[in-house]
Amino acid sequence: MRDIKIFACNTAEKFTEEVCSYLNLKMGEKDSYKFKNDNNFVQFKESVRNQDVYLIQTTEVPVNERIMELLITIDAAKRAAAKRITVILPYFIYARTDKKDQPRVAITSKLIAKLIETAGADRVITCDLHNSAIQAFFEIGCDRLTGSYLLVDYFKKKKLKDMVVVATDAGSSKKAYKYSKLLNCPMALIDKRRDNNDDKACATNIIGNVKDKSALIFDDEISTGGTLIEAINICKKHGAKEIYAGATHGIFAGDAIERLDKSCVKEIVVTNTVPLEEKRKIDKIKVISIAPLFAEAIRRVNEGKALGDLFLYEK
Ligand code: R5P
Fold it and tell me: Which of 174, 177, 210, 261 is the most buried (most CB within 10 A)?
């Protein structure tokens, strides 16, 4: 790899270290702190002039703080004459507002894309966007990796008997179908409704058979856990033998972990796109690292190689 520098923003150090260790590179040094008036300060402690710069930012709460530091870091890299700035955003925040579906609301995912672009990024590499159309909100390049193959591999290794993939709602049925093909098992579909801005989803029925089976519920993200808990309950009610869940982004907002811990789900598998604090970890939650996938994407971008086969499941 040539002329490459990788830096961590805010709390992304652990993830960035993993990426750097995969690539056998030293993480770039930068300084970042807050003034007494709450303004952020960012300074690269080494030259980035004419370098291929990668800025990694994870977006756990407080998310507004994370996005502001990212923007300031991009600006600093641009003003320090970086040749190319690629933002690595394992979890794209504000993604759930991707259309004007009510009067007088913002389209925040588009706004975030515009902010990153305006700050000076040349490219963004992210993962499992809540809505894949968000990719088109960027005028700059946007590569969207997926954590789904890590989840598939994990469950394949478990060799569960009588699996059935359960889609949490009609919107996720295409993705569930893909999982069921990869895991070579049938699928079922939950009829879920969500009213307006209500964070709480309500599952009413299930189409398909989960009785005496190992039900696998996949989603792009687990936020409040509402969708998942409804799905767990309905699978249980319809006689599932054991219930597992998998998601790329484990956000676990509010008391999601406590509520999931009390539920009858056997195991929840997520990747580390959103860091989970040590003190919040519970036995039921298994975190698998997606950092090597991002590292491989960075290597290919730096070497001018195609990313194509990172989007395919070929074993
Ligand atoms: C729904 O559109 C998504 O696929 C997820 O089901 C949702 O974002 C999960 O949110 P929560 O955990 O808050 O129900």
Answer: 210
